[in-house]
Design brief:
Shape: globular
Strand order of the largest sheet: 1-2-3-4-5-7-6
Number of helices: 2
């Protein structure tokens, strides 16, 4: 199940299995385009702060969250799913492992850059794409048009 937890400034999405959280991320429906100005034009959904539970299979959870994000972006009618990954506190080995994991989940490397504070960032993207049959794996309760409720939306993982 993917559930939306809304706060005034951010949408936090959680993935549950058997009512236990196994992953989460933040959605940015109207992101800043600061680092993306030189890339192919198109509307985008930006993700940040993606995590999987230590006890969960991170490869499977990362891939499932990626498929969900592609499908959700397609339902929103945007062109891209993009993310900016800070590598500031990572060793080169950890950064390589993270990028290899992201590539295995379907993410495309765009470029290395820096945020306004000088921290190193890696820009990643993937095209929005409807994922036929995903509903058999995930019941999504995240609304396409937010703002109808500020309370968590219940649901269950299949």
């Amino acid at each position: 199940m993917v559930t939306l937890y809304r706060e005034q400034w951010v949408e936090a999405v959680a993935l549950f299995e058997d009512e236990c959280p196994v992953g989460c991320l933040r959605l940015h429906r109207n992101p800043s385009l600061f680092h993306w100005e030189t890339e192919e034009a198109g509307s985008m959904l930006q993700l940040s702060l993606a995590y999987s539970a230590p006890s969960a299979a991170p490869d499977k959870i990362g891939r499932l969250m990626t498929l969900w994000a592609q499908d959700f972006a397609a339902r929103l009618g945007v062109t891209w799913v993009r993310c900016e990954v800070s590598t500031d506190k990572l060793s080169s080995e950890e950064s390589l492992r993270l990028l290899t994991h992201a590539k295995g989940c379907g993410w495309q490397f765009v470029c290395f850059t820096h945020d306004p504070g000088g921290r190193p960032l890696v820009l990643l993207q993937l095209p929005a794409r409807a994922q036929l049959g995903l509903h058999a794996l995930i019941r999504c309760t995240v609304p396409i048009h937010p703002g109808l409720s500020s309370a968590p939306v219940p649901g269950t993982h299949r």
